[in-house]
Design brief:
Helices cover about 25% and strands about 30% of the residues. By secondary structure, it is an alpha/beta fold.
Amino acid sequence: MDITIFIVDPALPDVPRNGERFTKLIETILRNEIREIVLISRRESRSEKSFLDRIPEKRFENPGFFGRFAADRLQKKHLRCESYLISDLIAHFDWKSGRDLFLYFEENSSPVSHDGVDFIDKLIQVRKERSGSAVGIRKISFGEVRDAILLKGTLFSEGIYRIQSAFRGESALKTPSNLALTHILLLENALVSAMMIDPAPGGESRFIDRLDSWAHVNPVYGVLPFRPIRIR
């Protein structure tokens, strides 16, 4: 698919990447034909160069004029950021490229569990089959509701919800949902272009408002963590 993925590592600059996890993550990304990989971290670019070099060169064939094929090369780069609000990260995305945006936060993820690379496969599958944005969700306790980005939706199929609204959690007594947005999101290009937000105070609130407005009239699917059955 024509996707740019932001691999977001919000760790402090002196905390090294997990090399094994990174390798498995890149294998999954390449298997899904993602066209651009952007590493986002607080580290200097020179310290991320060795990880960029681990990403193998790849070309994608695209139909051209008169049946000819033009080969596009996999793009890869590093961006240094200090803010990791979803709204601020979206502001770094070139929505005019026509690509979808995949935001993948490395925090608290494992390449061999339901919130790692298996979840990437699942979101891309939903995006292909349902022609809408696909976002990772999780069920939270009412004690976690405050300040979470909550989603309300109806069960569409096993583990997948059709999202109808998005809002900021306030209190357990007032919330109509315990479905929370995670930091794994696959946003279609039309949605990203509709929610381009300049980094500014209140940007995250505007992101929620625009996601809410979009979900009222366009398909957005929430996907619960997928835990594959592993046979020993």
